[in-house]
Specification:
The structure is a homodimer.
Chain A (H helix, E strand, L loop, with lengths): L5 E4 L14 H7 L5 E5 L6 H13 L4 E4 L6 H7 L3 E3 L4 H10 L3 H9 L4 E4 L1 H4 L28 E6 L13 H8 L7 E5 L2 E6 L2 E6 L3 E4 L6 E3 L10
Parallel strand pairs in A: 1-5, 2-3, 2-4, 4-5, 6-7
Antiparallel strand pairs in A: 1-8, 7-10, 8-9, 10-11
Chain lengths: ~230, ~230
Amino acid sequence: MDKRRLLLISSSGVHGRGYLDHAMPEILPFIAGIREVLFIPYAKKDRDAYAEKIREHMGREGIKVRSVHEFSDPVKAVIDAESVFTGGGNTFLLVTELYRQKLMEPIREKALRGMPYFGASAGSNIAGLTMKTTNDMPIVYPPSFDTLGLVPFTINPHYTDPLPEGLQAGETRAERLKEFHEWNDNPVVALRQEAMLLMENGSILIKGGQGVKIFRKGEEPEDLVPGEKLDHLL
Amino acid sequence: MDKRRLLLISSSGVHGRGYLDHAMPEILPFIAGIREVLFIPYAKKDRDAYAEKIREHMGREGIKVRSVHEFSDPVKAVIDAESVFTGGGNTFLLVTELYRQKLMEPIREKALRGMPYFGASAGSNIAGLTMKTTNDMPIVYPPSFDTLGLVPFTINPHYTDPLPEGLQAGETRAERLKEFHEWNDNPVVALRQEAMLLMENGSILIKGGQGVKIFRKGEEPEDLVPGEKLDHLL
């Protein structure tokens, strides 16, 4: 039986609303019964400040948070965790530090065995097979682009449709993802800003205020809306 | 004596003009007297088509072009080259293939000894210390982010100022470059779309229709316009 429980949020902020506010209606039932969430702050440099921000926002909802960087043994912290939440920031930083701390494999194993894993932006991207469809700048060199592989595709967070003529600087996101498929075979699930994926009971449901676009090698992209499932990708 | 001769073009296309048209007034005097230019097509997948395009555009100006992928010994092709031009595309692809073909070092050595090197977009980015300020998607994993190091800074091509409120998706370019400086010390020269850098006689001059913005760690960015020099960075 497939035990995976994942909530993959495109963005921690959507226009006009506070940090994670739009995602709380999904986060709260997702971690119902969990006493403490383990936070992964590595996508940003100032880990103390980032952990404090998350603690404040989650605390308002009655969720207790500890950050993995506050533990002397981060691997043990993951092994003991009831749930893991990875925040957004720079995916290259996040992946570099997850490898350095040897946390990629423990998080993966726990999540495959049913520990609720949730993430926003870079934290959602790393649930995919690789980080190759991140939008971030490569400010540090990770030892690998391979990520958790909790879902059999790569994730492009913050998907944007082309801007009006003249405002589009350089290629569109869709053109970049097409170029990805010149060198890679796996599907890409592009999450619009307000989209989320909820995986439980062996099924992936689209949640949130916007839908997703699926890019497959050599095929036209497929648009799906909240309420529809991605089970054909499993 | 500093023998470097470099022409680093932000973009191969600017709004409303044909491929490289805006750069030709700089390219032609830069390679005056050169009989044949060696083209590096690795930033795009279809090398034959890319070489053909360059041959056509350069041919109109009377410049003969051969592409490095047409040689059985690419290293020898570089060693024998009178001038090297690297085209734009995906910087991750370009750097991966330059390492695979063992061309990074020969190009570097030739350029330091005075062979005219010119590039556009990804081809300009790799003249810097590292590719860490590229805007491209990491669709393949290069063996290193280190690049030619022909200039003592990194280059951000296609620099764009922030879009109006509401149209800016995610962080601005300036915010990304600030994040780069949380982990790296060297200056970044951000080239606006129509900007170019011309290095000769130990001096770097800003050319083209737009200027550059210099980002340094912990300092306010500095705006410079065409006609000004970057010699304080050397």
